[in-house]
């Protein structure tokens, strides 16, 4: 899953201009992005409502990059096929919303998508010790999910290190993705802690030049 020197930059369209979403997606793809990150929120699990499969279908039609759907929703099992059919290449679900997380991860993989396991800031790494090897990637939330533009939670660094140590102890090469407050000031520390996939919203879409920002973020991460 990781190329570009084991560093993937995943712009989050939550911070894009939805009035010209297709143009924004094409712009970050041309600027060197590796993955398009799509935040799906239901107004129940998180205090915000964003988009559904119809918009994901439009995202899929706008890019040749992998489409990464992060399901911040209750009862995600009911919608896995809908998002896969809409064009999601990667689908991540929260440990906190899945009473049978092993079954849910397996269901995503059976649909032919990469399965991501997401942990909220308050969920310990040890909670997923027994199921982590089922995941294709693991997402550490470094903010409380629900809104873009939040400040990075500092204790996330120790959590990333703990997850990396767990994966190493199990002999697993599962990539660690981090979402929340990723910018020029934080991405280096997050990379040093063990992450290789970086979700950035406002840092990229708020920049004057997407290509320069993506190149700079990648350079800092790889340093």
Automatic annotation (TrEMBL):
SUPFAM superfamilies in the cross-refs: Ribulose-phoshate binding barrel (SSF51366)
Keyword annotations from UniProtKB, A to Z: Carbohydrate metabolism, Cobalt, Isomerase, Manganese, Metal-binding, Zinc
Cofactor note: Binds 1 divalent metal cation per subunit.
PROSITE patterns hit by this protein: RIBUL_P_3_EPIMER_1
Pathway field: Carbohydrate degradation
Tagged with keyword Nucleus: no
GO biological process, one term: pentose-phosphate shunt
Annotated catalytic residues: 39 (proton acceptor), 179 (proton donor)
EC number: 5.1.3.1
Pfam families cross-referenced by the UniProt entry: Ribul_P_3_epim
Gene Ontology CC terms, in alphabetical order: cytoplasm
Known cofactor(s): Zn(2+); Mn(2+); Co(2+); Fe(2+)
Domain of life the protein comes from: Bacteria
GO MF, one annotated term: metal ion binding
Family listed: Belongs to the ribulose-phosphate 3-epimerase family.
PANTHER family noted in UniProt: RIBULOSE-5-PHOSPHATE-3-EPIMERASE
Protein name: Ribulose-phosphate 3-epimerase
Gene responsible for this protein: rpe
């Amino acid at each position: 899953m990781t190329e570009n020197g084991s560093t993937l930059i995943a712009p989050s369209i939550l911070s894009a201009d939805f009035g010209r979403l297709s143009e924004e997606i094409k712009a970050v793809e041309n600027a060197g992005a590796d993955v398009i990150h799509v935040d799906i929120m239901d107004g129940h699990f998180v205090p915000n409502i964003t988009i559904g499969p119809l918009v994901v279908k439009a995202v899929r039609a706008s890019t040749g990059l992998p489409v990464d759907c992060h399901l911040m929703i209750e009862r995600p099992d009911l919608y896995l096929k809908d998002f896969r059919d809409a064009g999601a290449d990667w689908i991540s679900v929260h440990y906190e919303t899945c009473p049978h997380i092993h079954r849910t991860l397996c269901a995503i993989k059976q649909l032919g998508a990469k399965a991501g396991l997401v942990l909220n800031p308050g969920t310990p790494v040890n909670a997923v010790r027994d199921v982590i090897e089922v995941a294709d990637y693991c997402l550490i939330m470094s903010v409380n999910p629900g809104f873009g533009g939040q400040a990075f939670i500092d204790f996330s660094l120790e959590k990333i290190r703990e997850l990396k140590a767990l994966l190493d102890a199990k002999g697993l090469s599962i990539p660690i993705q981090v979402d929340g407050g990723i910018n020029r000031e934080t991405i280096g520390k997050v990379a040093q802690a063990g992450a290789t996939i970086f979700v950035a919203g406002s840092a990229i879409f708020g920049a004057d030049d997407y290509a320069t920002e993506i190149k700079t973020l990648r350079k800092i991460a790889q340093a």
